[in-house]
Design goal:
Radius of gyration: 17 Å
Number of helices: 8
Largest sheet: none
Order of helices and strands: HHHHHHHH
Shape: globular
Strand content: under 5%
Distance between the termini: 32 Å
């Protein structure tokens, strides 16, 4: 239900539903169960959407810790987790922390995904961080890398390539 409310932009109901799901899961599952990580992640996404970055970060970190304990160190879900954390740091203007998270996400993705996978366009996030840090040479390099990946992994009319 929380995902449906989120898609309808009813964030208070989405948050309430995700928290209720987490409460039920905490009572019935072991503390390192992947479904708990999913609940924490869903809560983090809603908080990030409404600008509750501290709460988003707390929940993304809880999800990440469960994933680190239960998944191989190079699992793509960990890359997504690092990316979510990086997004919050970026929104808070903590660019060096965002950069570190995004680089970890990219490192995992490069090791685990096929060379033409669209998720490898993560250099775009890194480029935006460098751009905000006024390091335009590095930003350009990563923007170019993201475009190259996108051109090889997405249809030419994909809106992501128009950014």
């Amino acid at each position: 239900m929380g995902l449906a409310y989120h898609k309808m932009c009813d964030y208070s109901k989405a948050l309430s539903s995700h928290k209720k799901a987490l409460e039920i899961r905490e009572q019935s599952l072991p503390s390192n169960h992947p479904d708990l990580a999913s609940s924490y992640n869903n809560i983090g996404i809603v908080y990030a959407q409404i600008g509750g970055y501290e709460n988003a970060l707390t929940n993304f970190r809880k999800a990440h810790e469960i994933k680190k304990k239960t998944l191989p160190l190079n699992h793509p879900a960990l890359a997504i987790s690092y990316n979510n954390i990086g997004n919050v740091y970026f929104k808070r203007g903590e660019y060096s922390k965002a950069l570190s998270s995004y680089e970890k996400a990219l490192e995992i993705s490069e090791k685990t995904l096929p060379h033409n996978h669209p998720d490898l366009a993560m250099p775009y996030n890194i480029a935006v961080v460098y751009e905000n840090m006024h390091d335009y040479a590095k930003a350009h390099s990563f923007f170019k890398r993201a475009v190259d990946i996108g051109q090889h992994s997405l249809p030419l009319n994909d809106p992501e390539l128009q950014k």
